[in-house]
Design goal:
Shape: globular
Number of domains: 1
Structural class: alpha+beta
Strand order of the largest sheet: 2-1-6-5-4-3
CATH class: Alpha Beta
CATH architecture: Roll
Helix content: 25-40%
Number of helices: 3
Number of strands: 6
Length: 110
């Protein structure tokens, strides 16, 4: 399988997520970024850091991106996520909007 050539902020996001490093995940985002996941919206880097820390505490999981598409100004990464959560394993879609070398928005859906 050929490795994906992810844009730098997205590659950094997945690398930090693999390390379960909420601080490093938050640094991938703009100050006013928005994350939508599991029916909740997290605005700003403090909220994003808290979201990622809670998810990393609540679940043990791995994520393996395997597809990248462009869609209306967004980068859409499909990743297999496997762990101790209901419905595992699942392919999730990560819809990123980049701005000035950082992530401005992220929506995670099934």
């Amino acid at each position: 399988m050929t490795p994906l050539n992810l844009p730098e902020p997205i590659a950094a996001y997945f690398a930090a997520d693999r390390q379960k490093n909420a601080e490093a995940v938050a640094r991938c985002f703009t100050a006013h970024a928005v994350v939508k996941d599991e029916g909740h919206t997290h605005s700003g880097t403090d909220a994003i850091k808290a979201w990622k820390a809670a998810a990393s505490t609540k679940y043990t999981y791995t994520t393996e991106p395997f597809a990248l598409q462009q869609d209306d100004g967004h980068q859409v990464v499909t990743s297999q996520v496997e762990g101790n959560f209901p419905g595992s394993p699942v392919d999730l879609r990560y819809r990123f909007r980049l701005e000035r070398g950082l992530i401005a928005s992220l929506e995670i859906t099934v």
